Amino acid sequence: MNIVKLNRGTGCRFLVRAAVVISLGLATVAFVPTVSGTLSSAQAQVSVSAEFRTALEPFGRWQQHSRWGEVWIPTKVARDWRPYTVGRWVYTDDWGWYWVSDQAEDNWGWITFHYGRWVFDPELRWVWVVGKEWGPGWVHWRRGAQYLGWAPLPPEEIVVEYRDEPDVWIFVRSRDFVAPRLVSVILPVRQQEVFIRETVVVNQTIVIRERGPAVAVNPGIPPAIIAAAVGRPLRAFEVRPRILAGTAQIQGAVEVRPEDLRQGQAQRAQVTVRETQNVIQPSRNVPPAQPLAAGEQGRLSDNPPRAGRQGGREPTTGQGPAAGNQQRQGQQQQSDQQQQPGMQGRGPDQRQQGGRGPQQGTESRAPQQKQQPQATEGRAPQQKQQPQATEGRAPQQKQQPQATEGRGGGQQKQ
């Protein structure tokens, strides 16, 4: 009997242990995540992040953020530092407004001002969120009668709430916008609320995805309006940007390969900024600023940057389908009216000299043949009547100053 009791007790203990093992096994199976369809995406993200990590580690620290994941924070800047302040804006025919970093930030600015997004955190201050799409500068724009401003463009889900957030904006007097060192003319932060009240959001960097590879352009505030505020014609620039290999298809760009990053040779490839012979004339009539609607994601205008017209892309104004149809009809009318023998084509905004590729050696249309006109912000082409008053770039005048290599305006880009 004692043996029988012992066997029963042993059997009970065995059954209990077996039940526990089975339960744990089932629980383990239940909590194993399903990774089908997500592994390749995760690997791609890690791969891109690894390259950014290698490039940026010498200039800041990586930290985990509760909302944005792993972010990069510059460590060699002042606590009140803001993105897109140590450098200047130049207007390019290819992408619109392009951010040129000063030498102090160029070693890491070629990545953080042209890839990813910046977010303001009350504790960490400005943090950079990784992104693999290249752009001439990721910002949104404000304009008023006396002031204009720009702010780093955050991730898409919080763009609208950032539009009226004073802490993220940088303001200058409109006449100072083309200063060679913007940091010296930026207005005091203590007046931000005044500047917010006196300006409206008019544009932002636009990503075009209709055809072919995605391309980012930054039409911002039309350069003819800037020229009017400055009180003189402006020159357009040609830029050969530095890009991370495999992230963008940009003709003439300087590619930085992963092995260049690992060997610390990325800094040998410098961004080239060259002033061209294309002259941007001031607008004769500057229209009032028209604010973007809450769901509007930027305006290409009637004379968009060259990259925005590639692959048959049409200028858009951010308006509804009806406005888009009117615009297409207006463009067709212009095309019928402006066809001339010997014209080779970049479209209505054909430039004269100083650009790359097909632009050289072409003739520009005479202003009297352009039935385009008074300055309107994001209006359809058929509404224009005077080319000098266009909202986009004004008709270009052919001049022959000596092209300068580097930063333009007397500053050489190192």
Task: Report on the architecture of this protein.
With 414 residues, this protein is α+β, with helices and mostly antiparallel strands. It has a domain at 82-311 and 373-389. 24% of the residues lie in helices and 20% in strands. The protein has 8 helices and 16 strands. It is globular and about 55 Å long. The termini are far apart. The model is unreliable at 1-12, 18-47 and 311-414 (pLDDT under 50).
User: Helical content, roughly?
Assistant: 10-25%
What is the number of helical segments per DSSP (H or I, 4+ residues)? 8
Physical arrangement of strands within the biggest beta sheet: 1-2-6-5
Return the structural class. Answer: alpha+beta
Radius of gyration: 27 Å
- Name the average pLDDT: 73
Query: What portion of residues belong to β-strands?
Result: 15-25%
Distance from first to last alpha carbon: 96 Å
**SSE string:** HHEEEEHEEEEHEHEEEHEEEHEH
